[in-house]
């Protein structure tokens, strides 16, 4: 049952066929061996790896080989701050924090408020405001403030521009068009933007003269940006950035696509009061049958159940418990309300913890955010 | 005798037919009435106006009407710093200084080192270096340092970018392509650049919240940039910038096209030792005949003579003297060597004065140049 799907950095629609994406983008699946390497260094295997939420990569094997020979790597990831942070956004950041702790890497975190201004109906100051707001969630996700710099493109553009010019000089409209699907109606700001987004991949080398690799943990839809950075890296004497890619956490109203920050009901925001989050989770799309009687007789469809996916990827670490939910659902022994309540409890507990860290982050954020 | 000619901000080739340019660009010739208005305000008519070196405009009449009603205007001009400054570059700056004194306007002067890096084989730091070097000539050209800000795009990009984003969001690739002739091989930096170059036209309003008009004195080939700025101005609540345009001072080796900074022998640089400048002028292309005998018998061709044009536009204020040179040339009464010597004396005197002011400018330049 394959549907048409679209994945580019501005759009993820339809049911995402990740196997097909891996093939189309030409990335590699994360091998057991690579996952083990991370585990050994980290001391524990992250749930996101074990459950395949992080599932593919580009040259992560090279980064690891270099690392074993003594060449460090920095981390780079980012956020398009067009609104509040939701749980889906947190996934790469939590994973980045895990990698940062395991490998002691410095993190460069880019807030692409310029991109959001150029592509959305959002004001420039509003977008910059979201950069500062969302930065609280980045810190709350667990990154090490002493080894992290977060910057808004708008506030750090003097520095970024010097690097972006090096990139932009070597990227033709043809190339940008082929990768991002630009048309004649694309605005000239967004046509330049791929150079801006590629730049942090070279910051450690260019600004700090460090001979390091760069690894980018992010959702799979961001891969095209790094293809530009990778293509021009050798032309400017830089190592090609590598990527490690996640799937999307589905929105509460269906398993296809990614959680949308603009559809209030499909997303749980990091700032939602737990009671509101609970209400949202209780309204989730599940694989339940039309009636209780039917559910008990025929069992549910956990395959299409958002609640199951959320537990699987993010909220239930215990394989046995998860298996039990699946089996009992199939057998009609458990009803959707019970699963939703279980998930809601987990989500609320997570939010409470996150919100505490988020509050604490308010004291640190202006130290972590760098400006020109 | 019309030849094919090309005029865009990156290229001026062949014999320039200014009448045709005025028609093609859709600009207006400078009327007697407008010239008189400037003269009344300035107290004297500038040679460049009297001799038609500044010859056309876009909405300068509107600027003047507004001015008479009490609405001030700021001045904006700039330079692509890819090398040393030559005499041709000085023309708009000298004229800008004249307008600045007459109208008391603040001047925003942009050094487009980013553009030069993107379009030429010049390093980024090298281009920024030329920004600072060329700024000495801007000051030496007579602008008022207390009412002037000069900035390098690379060094002031944080501020410029905020304005450029507003512009870029409203300019499609189609539009930029139509105006600048971009192709699929154009790099994505230069595609964005029109937004950068349009930005200073809105600085007074956006940064200082002043309700003023903006007038851009420059060579006619820069007009396309202001068309972009003019098109989007109403969309962002700004007045349309106006322009006042000059012809090009021809290079020493021929009257077609503009003086090229990259052809050492065709240009006199502001830093040339007078002896070198003299040598260059003595090698100028003239309308002289093959032999002295022929010249004396048939007379010369001042119509194609660079020396005559230089005297006409820049170095001989006295109409009678100029007329005498012309007539005596036609009649074979004067030989090219004499004219060249006369011009060389004038050029050397000009250089000596300019170089003194340039030296003095070294003390002021870092105060006039603003950075993020």
From TrEMBL, chains A, B:
GO terms for molecular function: ATP binding; tryptophan-tRNA ligase activity. A motif ('KMSKS' region) lies at residues 258-262. Gene3D superfamilies: HUPs, Tyrosyl-Transfer RNA Synthetase. It is an enzyme of class 6 (ligase). It comes from Fermentimicrarchaeum limneticum. Keywords: Aminoacyl-tRNA synthetase, ATP-binding, Cytoplasm, Ligase, Nucleotide-binding, Protein biosynthesis. Its main location: cytoplasm. It catalyses: tRNA(Trp) + L-tryptophan + ATP = L-tryptophyl-tRNA(Trp) + AMP + diphosphate + H(+). InterPro entries: aa-tRNA-synth_Ic, Rossmann-like_a/b/a_fold, Trp-tRNA-ligase, Tryptophan-tRNA-ligase_arc. This is Tryptophan--tRNA ligase. Coiled coil: none annotated. SUPFAM superfamilies: Nucleotidylyl transferase (SSF52374). Its EC number is 6.1.1.2. Catalyzes the attachment of tryptophan to tRNA(Trp). The keyword Chaperone does not apply. It is found in: Cytoplasm. One of its GO terms (biological process) is tryptophanyl-tRNA aminoacylation. GO terms for cellular component: cytoplasm.
């Amino acid at each position: 049952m394959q549907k048409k799907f679209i994945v580019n950095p501005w759009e993820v629609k339809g049911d995402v066929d990740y196997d097909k994406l891996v093939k189309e983008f030409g990335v590699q699946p994360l091998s057991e061996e690579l996952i083990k390497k991370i585990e050994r260094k980290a001391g524990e295997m992250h749930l996101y790896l074990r459950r395949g939420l992080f599932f593919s990569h580009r040259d992560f094997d090279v980064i690891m080989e270099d690392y074993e020979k003594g060449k460090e790597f920095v981390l780079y990831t980012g956020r398009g701050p067009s609104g509040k942070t939701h749980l889906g956004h947190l996934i790469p950041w939590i994973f980045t924090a895990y990698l940062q702790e395991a490998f002691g890497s410095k993190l460069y975190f880019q807030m692409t408020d310029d991109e959001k201004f150029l592509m959305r109906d959002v004001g420039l100051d509003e977008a910059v405001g979201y950069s500062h707001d969302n930065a609280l969630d980045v810190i709350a996700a667990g990154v090490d403030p002493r080894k992290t710099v977060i910057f808004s493109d708008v506030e750090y553009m003097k520095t970024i521009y010097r690097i972006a010019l090096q990139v932009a000089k070597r990227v033709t409209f043809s190339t940008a068009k082929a990768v991002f699907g630009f048309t004649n109606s694309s605005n000239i700001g967004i046509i330049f933007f791929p150079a801006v987004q590629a730049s942090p991949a070279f910051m450690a080398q260019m600004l700090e003269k460090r001979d390091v690799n760069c690894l980018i943990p992010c959702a799979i839809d961001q891969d095209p940006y790094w293809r530009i950075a990778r293509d021009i890296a050798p032309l400017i004497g830089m190592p090609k950035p590598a990527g490690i890619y996640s799937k999307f956490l589905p929105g509460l109203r269906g398993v296809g696509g990614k959680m949308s920050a603009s559809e209030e009901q499909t997303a749980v925001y990091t700032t939602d009061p737990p009671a509101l989050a609970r209400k949202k989770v209780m309204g989730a799309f599940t694989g339940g049958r039309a009636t209780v009687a039917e559910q008990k007789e025929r069992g549910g469809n956990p395959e299409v159940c958002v609640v199951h996916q959320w537990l699987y990827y993010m909220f239930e670490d215990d394989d046995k418990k998860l298996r039990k939910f699946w089996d009992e659902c199939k057998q009609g022994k458990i009803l959707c309300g019970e699963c939703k309540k279980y998930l809601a409890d987990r989500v609320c507990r997570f939010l409470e913890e996150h919100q505490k860290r988020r509050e604490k982050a308010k004291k640190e954020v202006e130290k972590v955010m760098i400006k020109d």
